[in-house]
Amino acid sequence: EIPRYVFERRGAISLGLPTSPKPRKNICGGGPRPRLSRRGGVSVDVEDVEAKYLRLLGDTEPSTRKTSTITQFTVKTSLKDLRRMQSTESDMTDPGVYAGRFKRKMSAPTVTRHRQCNDGLVEWSQLNRIGFWDFDTLSIARITKGRCLFYIGFQLLIKHDLFEEFSLDVMSVLKFLNLLEQHYEPENPFHNATHAADVAQALHCLLSNLRSIDSFEPKELLASILAALAHDVNHPGVNQNFLIKTASHLMKINGNTSLLEQHHSKVAKSLIKESGIISHLTLTDQDEILQTVEDLIMATDMAQHQKYVNNMKALMVSGYDSQNPEHRRVVLRMAMKCSDLCNTARPWSTCVQWGKLVLEEFWRQGDEEKKMMFDVTNMFDRDQCVPSKALTGFIDYIAEPLFTLWADFCDTSFTRDICRLIDNNRSHWEEVITLPV
């Protein structure tokens, strides 16, 4: 029987910190997030095999707020207004307020071009650089007070013309993005909503620079963006080995193969269904999109890394046929894998920040393992880990070969530039003895 504390969050099985009235700190800035109050009873999604993920019925809203949630708005918004929204700035920390202003004052001009952040002034126009590889998601997270997934996700759907293609309902999209943000753990240093937004932006860049981008069906592009945004949803901040050693309930539900990826996939599909973002499509189209979302999330499992690399190599030897759906699927999986590791290939000023975050998450797990008297590997031991060895090793054995393979497939100056960035970052990491503050 699954213990009651796992039902911490709506729409997913969480690793269940004890319920407490104390607000949690939002690691991306913007102050603490209020606890969510829940209404309704527990039900099982009967469409899922063996009912392996659960949902709580009823609406969820921050218990400290009295504003309406986005589901209470039924306004229909034109694409002209959607695009105008890209240049409109506000303190939209609540989607209900966001939707309300969107409805009432869409024609209002931008009030200011800058917002004061921890490290100075950051231009809001930075969001318009979403198609550039040097895009800094961490800065966007500070600008939006930790809500970069919400803004970036919305922007990507516009960029690929998916609102027009699928007649997406604006409020369903806002509901999905809001639910998704709620199910990422803000206390995770690395596996949080900011990382998810960063991966989605990287995927947009990689696919947009493919010569065969036009060969992908709109359903594949929509599923790819949804998968990237949700690929680590409800991540507990520890790896699979830790969950197995501690006999986590997730292991009992999903087994010990691709444990976390199975969980992310099921939560993602649940939130897609709950938000109704694709509910107006035919059942066949819905099934295809959900299947692609699951497939791409499963491709992020590093334990299966070599299998996906070998599949890509085999495809390149046999010859890529852009009209072959299975060939396109192999390419999408590889693009997702590269995007998941994009932090190693960003400009050094950004790469080093991500490196600090990922090591901090590893070290927090190591701290817990020490308390439980488990053996701790050097990378997870903050007293023993040498950042230069840990991160250059990851680049040498995983990131650099992966991006080189992608560059060989794409054969563009863009992908070759990414490989040069990785080499440059490796050189910088070699000189790092202790992490910069």
Strand fraction equals under 5%
Q: Give the overall shape.
A: globular
Assembly state here? Answer: single chain
Using only CA atoms, what is the Rg?
Answer: 21 Å
In whole angstroms, the N-to-C terminal distance is 45 Å
Q: How is the main sheet built?
A: 2 strands, antiparallel
* Order of helical and strand elements: EEEEHHEEHHHHHHHHHHHHHHH
Number of strands: 6
Structural class: mainly alpha
List the uncertain runs: 1-123
What spatial order of strands do you see in the largest sheet? 1-4
Number of helices: 17
- Mean pLDDT, to the nearest integer, reads 78
The portion of residues assigned to helices is 40-55%
In short:
The model is unreliable at 1-123 (pLDDT under 50). Helix content is 51%, strand content 5%. The chain is globular and about 55 Å long.
Tags for this entry?
single chain, 437 residues, mainly alpha, two-stranded antiparallel ribbon, 17 helices, globular, disordered N terminus
Write a structural description.
By secondary structure, the chain is mainly α. The chain is built from 17 helices and 6 strands. The protein has helices spanning 79-85, 95-104, 137-143, 148-159, 162-166, 170-182, 193-208, 218-230, 240-245, 249-254, 259-275, 283-298, 305-318, 325-340, 348-371, 387-410, 413-430; strands spanning 36-38, 42-44, 54-56, 60-62, 114-117, 120-123. Strands 1-4 form a two-stranded antiparallel sheet. The protein has a two-stranded antiparallel ribbon with strand order 2-3. A hairpin with a 2-residue loop joins strand 5 (114-117) and strand 6 (120-123). Helix 6 runs antiparallel to helix 11 (259-275), helix 14 packs antiparallel against helix 16 and helix 16 packs antiparallel against helix 17 (413-430). 39% of the residues are buried. The model is unreliable at 1-123 (pLDDT under 50).
